[in-house]
Design brief:
The complex is a heterodimer. Chain A is mostly helical. In chain A, about 70% of the residues lie in helices and about 5% in strands. In chain A, about 55% of the residues are buried.
């Protein structure tokens, strides 16, 4: 691989992977905070407001990092992938501007009111501000998914003689069926992250025997949301998305599943290491006929293997794709198991005292981040070797005028800067969790912020 | 239709400069005129609820270039690769400088983030000015309209110019002083006491420098790129623009004499807007002039996207921006008047 090509891929991959650690929590927490605010409004119980305020602080820190790491994404299309931008700007530029115009303005206007304006707004107005921040963050997700979905499954375009793409149906672009499936799957995945983070912090408080009244609220909201969305990740969203993928990117499905040769009644590989040279799975643990059933609904259907496709159309990094997909699916299964058990105990009123399960919930904290990252890796590594599926290859899209050395210079700069950001993030979030929700009597009031109302 | 989008992009970028300009300017002054923790909190409170929204104009403006003029976006963003990435680093550092400072009640922590905020604002302003200088001067295109500018070469605006040469550095200086004055006018309007007094003094004492740099930059532009007069001579109505720039400066001067903060701030808004209108008027229909005589300029005609998306775009874009302006009116109304530290709210 050309050195500059490799650096530009790594550049985009690193920046977007780091960036998406933050929006997934923003989008996942936003609806849960609205739930807490709604419960506060309906019950009049001030504890729910304290609980909401606690999560708003973490949301605020997280949001800042989402914003500052998101700005480079909008620029990178032009800086590192200029030939791609030149060809496709007439199509994907559209959802990207719509994100700015319809969601960033909305979020920036109401986030400040939501985070800092509670005293100035009425209770209902503050609830509305929270809802609008939620809507803004979910709209933002929609436009980004629309952009990615067009690259995965191009629709509503015409191609000009110079090779560039133009939209020919505005609604066609926004209503891309791929985007709807991907959006449902992705947003549900974001809520899984939000729910696990909330539950894990709740479990941490109960295990520590402190802020227990809040720990119980966090667990109740987190476990219910986590159960619903963990199940929705597999059925219906994952199931539908997987079938659509098998229909439109069969070579990707074959590589994800490690299916080198076509088979009737194809097995599903649960574990094993793909050996692309020898075209086989080492140490396989398989369940017979399940893959055919999952894709076609019958155990005898033939699933196409990699051997049916020309080698130059195979995803460029099959082991990475295979592992990303298996990690995502494996963790998804774990989430359902943990959340089902937790919900059962919550219903039997035993969850708050079952310490071993609280430990499990707490230790699950990093897994939704890993699963969401692995899911995106599956989608994007699976799209290779194409930038625009079937139409434009990745190796003709990067900025040929930006040398590998210049690309590496900025990549290293971002790596250093993002390391610092990660340290600040962990430090500040740790402080909020250590401080805990509610009013702490041992904190002296700041002399400046004496209440004036 | 391409002309419509040229105007819309120019509008967005002008909105960005006028709006984010005052919070960048406030950032530049932050270390110098706000001395105590209380004063620095006042500066941050004066921009806190709006700076993020102001910055969205840059994101939306960049996105609009991507959408309406894909070739311009691809060529300029990759050609200005190094300075743009540095702008991104500065935007990141400045953003956390504003937002993380309040989290810890500790002087070292606060001083660190004050420094990030202020130095980030200062360097960003110079970079943005230099960027505009590059766009007016022209860039060394290859035949396929790609280019790659090093940060500097010999500091001369010739065939192998870098991002920084004497002309673009001058443009950076104009931007630095203009936005500092703009920020000072804003802080004078939004704050009280010593802070407001020092802001007024800063704006007043920088005014002669701003006037001198404005004249110098106009002369330098005529030397570096004589073609900028073409549109003015063919459409003499354009000569109104420099007149309006001068009028804005004079009104600002008088407003400083009478300590009319609102008028001073509005006149610096007008000054920035008319300077940019003047530049856009001189460029049109070019969007990125060529410094290489063998290659044509990038114009709105050879960079525009297809007419279907541009036509539909006008519809949803207008709706979206109308709503966005509605948010801005709402936020600025809720936030009108002088800032105080006595509100008992969280934050900054």
């Amino acid at each position: 691989m050309d050195a500059a090509y490799f650096i530009h891929r790594l550049h985009f991959g690193f920046l977007i992977t780091f960036h998406y650690l933050f929006p997934q929590l923003t989008m996942g927490l936003a609806p849960l905070i609205v739930v807490l605010k709604t419960m506060a409004l309906r019950t009049g119980n001030e504890q729910y407001n304290h609980a909401a305020r606690f999560w708003m602080k973490i949301f605020g820190i997280n949001f800042v990092l989402g914003v500052v790491t998101g700005i480079p994404m909008e620029f990178q299309f032009g800086t590192n992938w200029s030939r791609f931008s030149r060809a496709t700007g007439g199509v994907i530029g559209q959802p990207l501007v719509m994100e700015g115009v319809f969601s960033f303005f909305l979020e920036s206007a109401f986030l400040g009111l939501f985070l800092f304006g509670e005293k100035r707004l009425s209770r209902v107005a503050h609830w509305w501000a929270g809802c609008l921040v939620f809507v803004g963050s979910w709209l933002s997700g929609f436009f980004i998914i629309t952009t990615d979905a067009w690259m995965q499954h191009p629709v509503a375009y015409t191609r000009l003689p110079d090779g560039s793409f133009q939209v020919n149906s505005f609604m066609g672009l926004l209503l891309n069926p791929w985007a709807q499936l991907q959006y449902a799957h992705n947003m549900s995945g974001a809520v899984v992250t939000g729910a696990f983070v909330m539950s894990a912090v709740g479990a941490f408080y109960l295990l520590n025997r402190r802020s227990e009244e809040y720990g119980r609220i966090f667990l109740r909201v987190g476990v219910i949301a986590g159960f619903l969305c963990s199940v929705a990740q597999v059925f219906p969203t994952g199931d539908l998305h997987g079938r659509y993928l098998a229909k439109h990117q069969p070579v990707t499905t074959a590589a994800m599943e490690g299916l080198f040769r076509s088979e009737k009644g194809a097995p599903m590989v649960l574990m094993g290491q793909p050996d692309v040279e020898k075209q086989r799975i080492d140490n396989p643990l398989v369940v017979n006929k399940v893959l055919s059933f999952l894709i076609y609904g019958t155990t005898e259907a033939e699933v196409k293997g990699l051997n049916e496709f020309p080698r130059e159309d195979w995803p460029t990094n099959i082991p990475l794709l295979y592992f990303a997909y298996h990690i995502m699916a494996g963790l998804g299964t774990l989430f359902i198991a943990v959340m089902t058990l937790a919900l059962l105990l919550l219903w039997r009123r035993k969850l708050y005292t079952t310490r071993w399960l609280l430990w499990v919930i707490m230790l699950c904290l990093p897994f939704p981040y890993i699963a969401n990252t692995a899911g995106w890796l599956t989608a994007e590594v699976g799209r290779q070797p194409w930038l625009v599926y079937g139409l434009m290859r990745t190796n003709v899209g990067y900025s040929a005028n930006v040398s590998a050395g210049n690309g590496l210079f900025t990549l290293l700069g971002f790596m250093g800067l993002y390391t610092v950001l990660a340290i600040f993030f962990l430090f500040l979030v740790h402080r909020e969790i250590a401080h805990g929700p509610g009013i702490r009597p041992n904190v002296e009031p700041q002399p400046i912020t004496v209440a004036g109302d | 239709m391409a002309t419509v989008w040229f105007v819309l992009v120019a509008f967005m970028l002008a909105a960005y400069v006028v709006l984010d300009g005052f919070d960048l300017g406030a950032g530049i002054l932050h270390l110098f005129i706000a001395r105590t923790n209380e004063e620095r909190r006042m500066v941050l409170r004066a921009i806190g609820p709006v700076w993020d929204g102001n910055e969205v104009w840059l994101i939306a403006g960049g996105g609009t270039i991507f959408f309406a003029f894909p070739l311009l976006y691809a060529s300029s963003f990759s050609g200005f690769y190094l300075p743009l990435n540095m702008v991104l680093w500065l935007l990141i550092l400045r953003g956390i400088g504003i937002e993380f400072r309040m989290h810890l009640d500790n002087d070292v922590w606060r001083d660190f983030f004050d420094g990030l905020f202020s130095i980030g604002s200062l360097l960003l302003t110079i970079f943005f000015g230099a960027a505009l200088g590059n766009v007016i001067r022209g860039v060394p295109f290859q035949p396929d309209h790609s280019f790659f500018e090093p940060l500097w070469t010999n500091f001369r605006p010739g065939a192998d110019a870098g991002v920084l040469d004497w002309y673009t550095v001058l443009a950076g200086a104009v931007a630095l002083i203009a936005l500092t004055v703009h920020g000072a006018n804003y802080l004078a309007l939004k704050t009280e006491g010593d802070l407001a007094r020092r802001s007024r003094a800063a704006a007043r004492s920088l005014w002669p420098l701003l006037a001198a740099l404005t004249v110098a930059s106009c002369i330098a532009t005529l030397l570096v790129r004589p073609q900028v007069t073409t549109n003015y001579t063919s459409h003499p109505v354009g000569f109104l623009i420099p007149v309006l720039v001068a009028a804005s400066l004079i009104i600002m001067f008088l407003a400083h004499r009478t300590a009319n903060d609102r008028r001073a701030f509005l006149s610096s808004c007008a000054y920035l807007a008319f300077m940019l209108v003047g530049a856009a008027f001189a460029l049109y229909p070019s969007v990125l002039p060529s410094g290489n005589p063998a290659v044509d300029d990038l114009t709105i005609y050879n960079t525009a996207a297809g007419s279907y998306s541009l036509t539909y775009g006008v519809i949803w874009w207008s709706v979206g921006i109308a709503i966005a302006i509605g948010y801005f009116v709402l936020v600025y109304r809720m936030f009108r008047g002088k800032v105080s530290l006595q509100s008992g709210e969280h934050g900054y």
